[in-house]
Write a structure and sequence with these properties.
2 domains, ten-stranded mixed sheet, binds iron/sulfur cluster, 446 residues, 18 helices, TIM Barrel, binds S-adenosylmethionine
Length: 446
Amino acid sequence: MLNKHENQNDYFHSLDDFQKNLFETLNETYSDETFCKLMAVKVANFFASDYHFHHRHAKLSSNPIQLLIDPSNGCQLQCPGCVHTGNKSVAEKFDWPNRSLPFKQYNEFLARYGVFASAAILYNYGEPLLHKRFSDMVRTAKEYLLFTMTSSNFSLKINADELVLSGLDYLLLSIDGASQETYQQYRRQGQFQTVIDNIKSIVEAKKRLKKDKPYLVWSYLTFEHNIDEVDKAIEMAEYLGVNEIQISTPFSVSWDDPSVKVAISPKQGRVVFKPVNINSYTEDERQAISQWASQIDTAYKASWGERLMKLGDKEEPSHTTASSCRWLYHNLTLDGASRIMPCCAAPTMDKKARNLVYAHFEGHNSNIINSASAVLSRQALADPETFTASTANRGATELPYCITCNEQPSPAYGFNQAAYLHAVDSRNSIPAEIYADLEQCALYKI
Ligand SMILES: C[S@@+](CC[C@H](N)C(=O)[O-])C[C@H]1O[C@@H](n2cnc3c(N)ncnc32)[C@H](O)[C@@H]1O
Ligand code: SF4
Ligand code: SF4
């Protein structure tokens, strides 16, 4: 088994053996080289990421295990506190160009990172369903065996059949009210009846097409103005046929609109009406990966030892006890304007306040994982002395935001990566202790 305490060189050479053995074990069960290589690479990458996180390295030979992608930066609503708020003096503080990610660029991004990752979270600060090719985006992500989830205001025209057939795993529906009057106080410009009609059509489409997915979650954020409608929303959610409703306490947005006040509901939590195992994978989904066989083969053949050597000959010092941020090791964010950011935070116009755009994605060879800002951020947190020496000549606006950030939001989006990979291995080929080790990875522990 892999030993996190080994030096880098030894660890990454044993990771090569581990990946090869894993491939052979899987192939005995599945006799499907492309699928087995893809799984072996994903599992090895998970351990590689966790190793770098454990030692708080500044440069990574691993690739992100989560891709956080905004298909569209734009949104038709104006919720307070959001980059799209109708409050001009707040909105203009954010650096948020309203662009849609070109499908070609999305494909290039997946071609580069999809093989290694386990999940594509297809939303951040825009309305993802505004992207005309959203369903195609999901379909492509599924071809790389990625768990796919998104969050939508659902207050727009949708094509329910396309969404269901895309293979989307998990769909959060942001509906903070049970009537137009209440709902629109947060979801400004939102049309409650459109949302309800869309829920009806997607539930009907799932039934007709005999699909369990997407798993539908009504997300209800509680404020003083909508807390009295929580019970009604729970009733409606059950009646409409969504899988569950989540009643949650939101972040305060009173800095944007003091009249919108957060409230805590005694019903806070989940009410599950239709439990379905979303960690499931069909044989059809598994077979759809064959078209990416050559990319998968290339990623499988490139040795981890060589990836490490490309970072330089010197072993990076280990700083296992230093504080750090897991986002810098497990995630990569791409927005609709092709900007690369480390996490789910939004950049501001005042670069000194939130300088978060660490690179731009310009194709396969863009230097992103180890961009200057990403490396400096990891270094600043793990090894402040080296960081101070290496940035002596940099102005404040050239320094990445991570060095002053104290937000460090939870990295998990409500699902368990190890359980997901286990589900993809539907014939239980990988030994249970490997899944147990994945569950234990500090990098992604929920
Ligand atoms: C910025 S939105 C983008 C996706 C989509 N437009 C939507 O609203 O679902 C991402 C998530 O943030 C959530 N959100 C909005 N305001 C929030 C708040 N004040 N506290 C916590 N989450 C919030 C939304 O409900 C949504 O699930
Ligand atoms: S619907 Fe989502 S993206 Fe749009 S304004 Fe509201 S929170 Fe922001
Ligand atoms: S330190 Fe803050 S800004 Fe940097 S990746 Fe973590 S959460 Fe994001």
